[in-house]
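Appendix B, record 7
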Amino acid sequence: MYIERIQVEEGFLSGLDVSFTLGLNTIIGARGTGKTSLIELIRFCLDAAGTSSDTSRRSREHAMSILGSGQVTVSLMADGQRILVTRTASENGPRASAPFIKPLVFSQTEIETVGLTPSGRIGLIDSFLPVTEDDPEALPASEIRSVSSQIEKVRRELEEAAKRLTERPEIEAALAAALEAEKNLTAGSSHISEKTAVLQQISTSLSGFSSSLAGHQAIENSLAAWYQQIEKAQKVEIQFTGLSANEVELAKSAIEVARGKMQEALTVVADAYHKLKAKSESINASKLQLEASARQLRTEVDTLQAGAGAVMRRGQELREKYSVMTASAERAEALQAHLTKLLQARDTALDSLEAIRTDRARRREAVAADLNQRLGPNIKVRILRNGQAPAFAATISDLLRGSGLKYGEVVGPLARQLSPRALVKAVDDFDFRLIAQIANISEERAAKLLGFLRSADLGSIATLNVDDDVQLQLLDGQDYKDFAELSTGQRCTVILPILLSHRNRMLIVDQPEDHIDNAFIAATLIRSILDSAGSGQVLFSTHNPNIPVLGSAQTVVHMGSDGKRGYALTKGPLHAPQIVSAISSVMEGGAEAFAYRAKFYGGTAS
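Structure tokens (predicted):
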């Protein structure tokens, strides 16, 4: 795929219409003629991101100021198919006739600074990996967050059940005493014995009703929560940007079908809820009738023997409590089994997520190995697995903020020695001993830390990506220097050869030569350009004549300006007379570049 043509309507470059080819394309011209503006309009039209949010913002602002209320259109060629991409200043994204791969675009500042941040370095490596439309992590990550939310709800319910069950021994003892008291009541009177037998039967029925009502309430609450979730999803507003009218209609149709399915689901859930609610109300009505009968019988028993009614009422209350307690124990057992399944499901999803990330790391290591083979020994590239631990430490700090715990010296060791998954497991297992050992803190303090983290969004923690980092080094004399220790020019001598190692990819670079000398351009940069341009498209804007001349540019665009508008003065292949004249007269050292070219290519300057 390569850029075949760019057309601009309105703005500083209004009327510009230039074509490019495979291989090396260069944009030349005096300062202020629109070389950088042309590149930024291409970046804007094709929605190619910058190396950071800040550079993306500046690039967009530059493009908007140049375009005004106009429109830019880029024609791409891919396997003989022309793809039209167009965008106006008011549109949030481009409109395209077919999917396309975005080019790699680097300004001079980005060349100098991209290697200074972990995200910039890993982005360099990832630019060599196949471009995919879908995020392979999205599905397992979504499942992990969903299951983690369910785990949290089940755990809360289990904790509440556990609190209730702590009263079980006491209730069992009290019930045994109440049964003994009831037995003593029946010993002295056949009338009391008959009535207490009926009361005990009613009490047993009431216990069953109480247990059933507790179960109904739990299910009704779950259905109500489920209804709210479906209703919330149904009301999500979808923004249609960057789509054609047909695509918008297609998307709207699909969304309406989905909303219809969700409405059906709401109807089914609501129907089940109301049926259960009606059953609960029926059970409660029966329970109220039995309670009235029990009160009448207790009154009759009390007239036969003072205090007997109170004994029977106490027995009834304890039977109901014991029945509900038994139901709670059964519910807790079912919840524990459900929790085990949820934990297994999350582990499976986490395994999938880790497999995706491990595979990506291996492919990154393969890219680094290839770059080392191409660019070594001068440039060395190394992948540091999970090297961005400081970002994980910052996340842990954010989670613990407001806890009242002194966590400053704790987060570093935790982020370095635990993966997000391992931290979640420690929270799940309440493994305060492990946390205390890793963070070198007391077990009491570790327990408080875990207690606070239990209230955090564990799904987000579990899916957090402690990304790989990249080490970039340059051979300086006998020693390798890390990227951060290099001068601006040395940084460019590392980044440019890496970028030019791309094959079959559109690469656009704005004025890369300001901090590098002609010796590097001739010895290293030109070789990289020739290798890269043979299989893809490279587009450079430049003030240095050695780049188009020694790089054997397939197309040269000479930009000019009248102060109000920028335009193409001439364009053509390197050997065209008007291009030779433009390079020789406009670019400082242009004539010398052509003379050096004759030596560079063994005596032929064409």
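Remarks on this record: The two ends are 27 Å apart (CA to CA). The CA atoms of residues 234 and 260 lie 9 Å apart.
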